[in-house]
Amino acid sequence: MMKIELYPPQEPMSANMLAYHKKLVSQADESRAHEIQYGADPYQSLMVYPADQPDGTVLMYMHGGGWTNGYKEWMAFMAPAHNALGVTFATVGYRLAPQHVFPAGFQDCGDALRWLANNVAQYGGDPEQIFVGGHSAGGHYAALLATAEALPDGGDVRSLIRGCAPVSGSYYFGEDSGMAVRPRFLGAPEAGNERHAAPLWRLSGPACPFLLTWGENDFPHLIAQARKMSDALQQHGTRVDTLVLPGQDHFTASYAAGEAGGLWPNRLHSWMLSITG
User: Fold this and answer.
1) CATH of the domain at 236
2) CA-based angle 168:134:124, to the nearest 5?
3) pTM
4) Is 115 helix (H, G, I), strand (E, B) or coil?
């Protein structure tokens, strides 16, 4: 398996991000993972964790890190909690900014989804029961997959997704987004990617069901964005459920998403089953 030290360098991490990184790496267990390269770049890889008693549901989850940091291995700690519920769990890596700007990472997530749809049956998952999720920047990519008409290469992925479950995600960019700094993955301002990369502005009709989650003490601008996204989805005829994680901030909301027997894994699983029947 590829180890984190073998990846190309990333941007320097903030103190909070470094603490988050160390905690997640210390909890990661790759012993049961099946690692797959879906592209030539080292970051274009995913790990699949089969459940001992799979019920067919699949969760494809993208890591956060502000689009400039992160590893698929960060989310490996979530596998036991979701596998215990019968969910086939996959954690996805993607190319990062500033070396790769939009739509590179988005295209990668779509390529990973298509690989999973074509291959997840061999790991106990049902390709017609794939749900996408992610934390922070990963939540943004999950929402974008669920709302975009097509990938940059023209391929369709919305038809592969049964539901979308972002945690503390971003849904739009620009002056009214509440972000103190323009995200570097958007590239040059003249490219107009603030709009192209925004799930909120992709809505043109009903989308797949959404479970929008954030921490009670999350970043205020992300709480505001999630509420605006919820309203917009409902206005377009989409089923939307929301979950506020009591007492959690932006980083601890990520930990809660992989807590064995915890609120989010159990709520997510029951929500999945309500959709798949």
Assistant:
1) 3.40.50.1820
2) 145
3) 0.97
4) helix
